[in-house]
Write a structure and sequence with these properties.
This protein is of the alpha/beta class. The protein is built from six helices and nine strands; from the N terminus they run αβαβαβαβαβαββββ. Helix 2 links the parallel strand 1 and strand 2. The longest helix is centred in the middle third of the chain and has 14 residues.
Length: 191
């Protein structure tokens, strides 16, 4: 199992904000090995981990991470971006959606934001906390954010001590360029 640099940065954000997490309902999408979700659960959040229902190995990794961290009660579900499924429709309310490095492949960007939009519409006060690695200046989600009436706040890494080459004794994030943003529904006036 491998944690990607974005997961370490998002986990750092969660750790710095750990006092706000107890009782929060958190869904991690594209969880992989689930580092951010595990940190949120360890900090007292009610967490659901998810990855694509088409990637059973990723779902097994989520479960394995939970067991390795004494979190056998954390649910793991299959959610595929851009697909309306019974699991998506029956999700309990959420306060925070997590996604580390989900904006990896531009072909998935709209499916991810479609899913996030659906979740935010069901949970209008929720936020999507996401980290991503800058891979190409040509890849942007700005037009999709406008299309789906979503707003974004850029979170400077230095504001939560994640602007270092090494975090928490890990060689990650290394020299990767990582960004963080918080996405939420735009109000009817566009803000």
């Amino acid at each position: 199992m491998h944690a990607w640099p974005c997961a370490v940065v998002l986990a750092q954000y969660l750790w710095v904000h750990r006092r706000s997490l107890p009782g929060k309902r958190v869904l991690e999408i594209g969880a992989g090995v689930s580092l951010p979700g595990v940190v949120a659960a360890k900090c007292g959040a009610e967490v659901i981990l998810s990855d694509s229902e088409e990637l059973p190995q990723c779902l097994r990794n989520c479960r394995r991470s939970c067991l390795m961290n004494d979190l056998p009660h954390v649910p793991v579900i299959g959610l595929t971006w851009g697909r309306v499924s019974p699991q998506l429709l029956s999700l309990a309310p959420v306060d925070v959606i997590l996604g580390s490095d989900v904006f990896f492949d531009p072909e998935d960007f709209e499916d991810i934001l479609t899913t996030v939009y659906f979740l935010l519409e069901k949970n209008p006060r929720a936020q999507f906390w996401t980290t991503y690695q800058v891979r190409s200046a040509d890849w942007s989600i700005e037009a999709l954010l406008c299309k789906w009436k979503l707003k974004t706040i850029h979170v400077p890494l230095h504001s939560f001590s994640a602007d270092k080459e090494h975090l928490a004794g890990s060689p990650l994030p290394g020299r990767h360029t990582i960004e963080m943003m918080i996405i939420s529904l735009a109000r009817s006036d566009g803000t």
